[in-house]
Amino acid sequence: xxxxxxxxxxxxxxxxxxxxxxxxxxxxxxxxxxxxxxxxxxxxxxxxxxxxxxxxxxxxxxxxxxxxxxxxxxxxxxxxxxxxxxxxxxxxxxxxxxxxxxxxxxxxxxxxxxxxxxxxxxxxxxxxxxxxxxxxxxxxxxxxxxxxxxxxxxxxxxxxxxxxxxxxxxxxxxxxxxxxxxxxxxxxxxxxxxxxxxxxxxxxxxxxxxxxxxxxxxxxxxxxxxxxxxxxxxxxxxxxxxxxxxxxxxxxxxxxxxxxxxxxxxxxxxxxxxxxxxxxxxxxxxxxxxxxxxxxxxxxxxxxxxxxxxxxxxxxxxxxxxxxxxxxxxxxxxxxxxxx
Length: 340
What we know:
alpha/beta; Maf protein; Rossmann fold; 3 domains; three-stranded antiparallel beta sheet
């Protein structure tokens, strides 16, 4: 499996959370050692390594992998090396596409060391290897489903606790009332039993400053972690997402409700980008794990729509809605400046 003219190599290392429980044989450290030794033995210059630690092989939307493709398109290397084919991915169609079509069509040699796979040679058994990797993926998914089913049948709670509850500290598979939100749920039921509409109840809760369930979950109940922020940012990386905000104006018995939608496209993030951004602390209290008004602005490639909607309040739409109530926001601003 020696190479001739292909001497500038990228190493790609991947490990899913499930595989991390399997021990050192599948670890990133072990993969790195195998690839480095292979390069030394074959006089290959290892330019850079790309790592996706904690990412499933069934999904190719991984920050390290996407960054590697970007660097390959720029001609930074013409050889990709992995420990085996499963490190590239376990989805048979996607893995086969990259190994047998994408890499060769772009003049890139691909080597999977342990599987003796080399695009510079004939790979007769490659289809069987790709198929077995997908079987492993599907079998793992089936086993997870079986475990969850068995837990449910034995009375263990396996889902996310609904609003008003939390997981019992002594038994994580049992629910317990959440001291902070259980009274809110009781209040909602009392109001509903008294005949109040859902809309009226929601407006009263907002007026009393009750935090909406999703925001409460992120900020308090689930103790949003750096790992969660990393997963969210990786999911947004290189993709377009939509930000929705609903606005209700109620004045003198008249109510108007509208919504604003803004599309936001993230640039492709490397793992280093994600780690450094999380280190600023900014993602930890932000919806979507980023703040466009802060350091998160460097993650955004483009937006279409109201910038302030992404911050949390579509100011322009709110101003237009207020004119329907006879409120001229610019006239109020002039008056304010005169007073000051």
